[in-house]
Amino acid sequence: MVETPQNQTQGAPLSISEPSSQAVAVLGGRPNGQGIRILDVSEEYVQFWGGDRDHWLGASPKIVHQEAANEQLLTQLHHALSGGKLGLGCSLSGLDHAEEALLSKAPRPLIEWRVTAMSMPGYADNVLVLVQRDITQQVEKEAELKRLATTDMLTGLMNRARFDYLLKHELGRLNRYVRPFSLIMLDIDYFKAINDSQGHDVGDQVLRALAALLEDNLRSADYCARWGGEEFIILAPETSLEQAARLAEKIRQCIGSAAFPGAERVTVSLGVAEAAANDTPKSMMKRVDNALYQAKESGRDRVAC
Predict the structure, then answer these.
(1) What is residue 9's three-state secondary structure?
(2) Residue 47: which CATH number?
(3) Considering its fold, how many domains does the chain have in total?
(4) Choosing from 230, 238, 249, 274, which is the catalytic residue?
(5) Are residues 10 and 126 in the same domain?
(6) Which residue from 189, 266, 197 is spatially nearest to 229, judged by alpha carbons?
(7) How crowded is the C-beta side of 5, counted as CA atoms within 13 Å?
(8) What angle do CA 148, 152, 158 make, to 5 degrees?
(9) Containing domain of residue 196, as a range?
(10) Does any domain span residue 121?
(11) Predicted local confidence at residue 17, as pLDDT
(12) Residue ranges for the chain with pLDDT beneath 70
């Protein structure tokens, strides 16, 4: 936190043992008992919020960017401090409008902040120490790691692990709210022949092109994953077996009429199954897999329910 030597005065700049990415301010109540003021700040706090050190000494602190939210926090801290509700070591923490910061077209830094009640040499009364840290890069890195962990690297679709999670979630919704959903599993017909005759590079191009075709032709509520090899699977929420069969037929026709890089006409076989009240992920996957097997055994390039 903040290192304050015994002989430090309130007019001397703070010395900080934490990394320089953290901004620190010492806060206290105003002499008239009305509100919170800054008693001292680190250079990082000044750099973070702009202005100069003299500008901030005695001023109201900035905890978050949004003015109304900042005033609300300061009022909360003032009442807690003046009412003796903040014992030593007690703290209040939060994020500065995480959703707005991440979704804005011109995102501002995502701030993690913590205010802690402390007793510090050089100050007659207990003070509040505000520590702020820009965690934008950390959050972005974590989001990217999560994306990589749930995405098929070749096609960019979600991977099997992510799809398993969504399937369990939808089965939970079915049991709680009796909301229908269906699965569509599809497999590229004679894909081994494409790899053998054209090479695996062409095979990969076909997989990527088919994934893009699926994303372009599915509804916004549908989920699509690469199940493995040349198999893909679609989860269609709020969709009966009849509706899913029509969607599967649309996909079959779309793929059958599309041009694929380096390959002649590509076709797919599709199996469709609607979730039942007693289904588990394993039982539902078995039924849709059986339907796909039936489509292949019946001659391929067709839909079976």
Answers:
(1) coil
(2) 3.30.450.20
(3) 2
(4) 230
(5) yes
(6) 189
(7) 7
(8) 85
(9) 150-304
(10) yes
(11) 38
(12) 1-20, 97-108, 124
User: DSSP state, 116?
Assistant: E
Distance CA 197, CA 205 (A): 14
Distance CA 33, CA 109 (A): 32
Tens-place pLDDT, residues 31-40 = 877 889 999 9
Residues 189 and 115 placed together within one structural domain of the fold: no
136-177 residue pLDDT tens: 888 788 887 888 888 999 999 999 999 999 999 999 989 888
**pLDDT of res. 178:** 87
Please indicate, yes or no, whether residues 160 and 113 belong to a single structural domain of this protein: no
Report the chain's C-alpha Rg in angstroms.
Answer: 30
Position 107 scores a pLDDT of 56
Alpha helices in the chain (DSSP H): 43-49, 53-56, 67-82, 98-103, 136-149, 160-177, 191-198, 200-217, 241-256, 281-297
Residues 6+ apart with CB under 8 A from 62: 49, 70
Residue 237, domain CATH: 3.30.70.270
Amino acid at 136: T
230 has catalytic annotation: yes
pLDDT at residue 184 in the model: 98
Residues 35 and 122 in one domain: yes
Closest alpha carbon to 77 in 124, 31, 30: 30
Q: Give the global pTM.
A: 0.61
CA angle 6, 10, 14 (to 5 degrees): 75
- Cα–Cα distance between 257 and 103 in angstroms, integer? 38
CB 54 within 8 A of CB 167: no
Q: What is the spatial distance between Cα 58 and Cα 38, in angstroms, rounded to a whole number?
A: 5
Is 145 contained in some domain? Answer: no
Token pair 């019946």: residue: 298
